[in-house]
């Protein structure tokens, strides 16, 4: 399978641009350098990657770029397309499909057979779950499910994937009968 070309990434890109091109960049920077995971180590969307590297122990920009790109490749290996999920839903009767969205989102619209991921369900799966079964996690747009997939994989569930583009992509690419929505944040 040919690998897709990585999007350009340079030190003069703003963190907003970096995150647009590499959605997992914040997770990658936090995991290696403790950057961007909390208020004390956070960054502003308008800061450049070079500025963030400089104020965090002068991390070489080329090193940070290489790490973000390598993490991006790892993220891609955890993803499953909406079309691939459709095939799994038809052909794998014991597929574990987990919704990492809020209860309200889950109750409004969900994929067939999906269970809302609660802390109780996580404990049940970690205690009694079959680590060889395929697990697919999804959220609204595919941004948060990668974190959840990494958490499951870290606990030995090696057949864990996340839905690229979330339920929104599934609705547009596979099942248009699923209502689409957008999240509005109140000020």
Automatic annotation (TrEMBL):
Leader sequence residues:
none
InterPro entries, per the entry: GlpE_sulfurtransferase, Rhodanese-like_dom, Rhodanese-like_dom_sf, ScdA-like_N_sf
Q: Which SMART domains match?
A: RHOD (SM00450)
Q: Which domain of life is it from?
A: Bacteria
Tell me the ranges covered by the Rhodanese domain, including all copies: 91-179
Cited Pfam families = Rhodanese
Its name, as the record gives it, is Rhodanese-like domain-containing protein
User: Which species?
Assistant: Prosthecobacter fluviatilis
